[in-house]
Specification:
The complex is a heterotrimer of chains A (about 260), B (about 180) and C (about 210). With about 260 residues, chain A is mostly helical. Helix content of chain A is about 60%, strand content about 10%. Chain C is mostly helical. The longest helix of chain C has about 60 residues. In chain C, about 5% of the residues are buried. The chains are: A mainly alpha (about 260), B alpha+beta (about 180), C mainly alpha (about 210). Chains B and C meet through strand 6, helix 5, strand 7 and strand 8 of B and helix 1 of C. Chain C: This is Charged multivesicular body protein 6.
Chain lengths: ~260, ~180, ~210
Amino acid sequence: MSRKAVGLAAFDRSRLTSASYASHGSSLKSSNASALETQLSVFRSLLQQFASTHSKDIRSNPKFRKEFARMCTAIGVDPLASSSSGGEGGGGSIWSQLLGRSVNDFYFGLAVRVVEVCGETRGENGGLIEVRKVGEIINKRGVDGGGGNVTEDDILRAVGTLKPLGSGFSVVKVGKKPYIRSVPKELNTDQSAVLEAVQVLGYVSVSMLMVNLKWARARAQTAVEDLVGEGMLWVDKQAEEEWEYWSPGFMLEVVEGEGGGE
Amino acid sequence: MSSSPPPQPFKFPREHSFPPFFTPQTNLTTHHAQQTKWSSLVLSYCRHHRIFKLSLSDSLSQSDLFHNQQINRRLSPQHQRSIIDFLRKEGRAEYQKENGGDLVYIYWRTPEEWAGIIESWIEETAQKGQVLTVYELLEGENTRGSEFYGMDREVLIKALNVLVKRGKAQIFGQEDSLGVKFF
Amino acid sequence: MGTSTSKITPQDQAILDLKTQRDKLHQYQKRIQSLTTRETEIAKQLLAQNDKPRALLALRRKKYQQSLLAQTDSQLEQLEKLVSSVEFALIQKDIVFGLQQGTKVLKEIHKEMGGIENVEKLMGETADAIAYQQEVSELIGGRISTHDEEEVEAELEALAAEVTGTGKTKTPAEELPSVPNTGFPSRQQEPARQEEQQAKVAERREALLT
């Protein structure tokens, strides 16, 4: 039926068809959207169901917790993201919405303990502490809510919950290891490099830095002295050849038999 | 001369084998944290060995408290003094003589705390109104097993004087044969 | 606060002296004990060096010291006994003093009562007064007429009926004329206040219905 429409009536008809296409399109769109919505709500309720039936496991079993968190991130749900930034109304993070707070509370509770540990040790480490050490201390004291230890992953997540508070707690990488920094101070690259070297060697001296990093004496001296000034390194003036600089994290080693190298 | 050493060796905290622990730190906050750790270490060490009086020079040269042979680090006399001063500010140490001297009382229990212990012992053993000799308190058969058995005589007398001030005791007699009456 | 100028009595001083003596003996014993162990050591050493006579001497010294020790033991025992009997005597003294005080107080109270005769007289008077009182009440009892007596008994009965709740009780509802008595037969026995409220409610309901 290839009939060429001519005349004024043709205009009318084409307008009509385009209008009907449009309406059809929008109805399709809306049906798609509603289908998606139902899918999403089904998914949510399933997730909720899953979370509530397994909330005990999520709380007590660190492995399980980690897997659950990974599942959430895989499908694009940041479990702890505060809704204020996400736009989703209702308040509280998705986990708190889904789980009736219990898992969420777990991380907030953990965050409080992390803050405690950072505060207690700030005097001796200048506010920079390895995440693993925080975990060791917390696990040694015992987590309330019983069973299971917290993992580094948990601690990182817990520190994440502090972000909206603008509390100045942040995670920095020194070398390969994550640290929690509880004083708002930026480390420059030289300082990070020194800390990394301390991590590997146990302690450093100016000449060690000069040899290993190929730095000029003044540069090494400045970096090390800055870190001592910030309280992030301790100086040992009784060493045989020259002053040595140590990480205060050494004192926090909770492991009984020399834990040492990793 | 003093009581026999306890069977178990003192377990030093980890910071005691941390070399910089023996160097006074320059950062003020760090230094404070360091002093706090040192003073609690001194207190627990003295408590463990029941040391009531510390000779600063002797302990510096002989004891394993201020000298860690394994890592070959020792405290400087000035640093040691500053730790004692830190303890003094918390009421946990006192020079035997005013302004300085070599002997320091280390109060892992303050005279007030000892006074409380003695007072409750008197109460428990129903010895109010009794006359006891100081020697008897320190070495008598009755006090064997009590916490102040064999404690330092001077610290004991300080504690008794606390009780005197509170009107709970009176000290009388000659210097070498002091007696106390409890009320 | 130096409230206690001196609570130390001469007895306290005496006890302290005794105890000091005892302490000294105690120390003496300790000294001798360490001496004897040392003599034994010396004797052993001398024997090892084949110096028999001097070893014997050391052992003799030891023997002598041991005899001293035995002596001090008995002395110590005596001192201990003395100390404890002094302490006990002090307690006895306190007891005697207490008894004295008690007796004194008792005597004073007796004195205030004015002796046996006074009490006897008082008792006699009390008996008299009781007898008199009885006489009076008998007299009054006789005066009350049988009529009065009946009235009194009737009142008692009425009171009893009210208490038990039987007989013709005056319902509080009667005081509120608008409420029909028959409407709430079961409520009648409830406390008055509740009744009142209910009555008011009923009143309002009736007003609405009509």
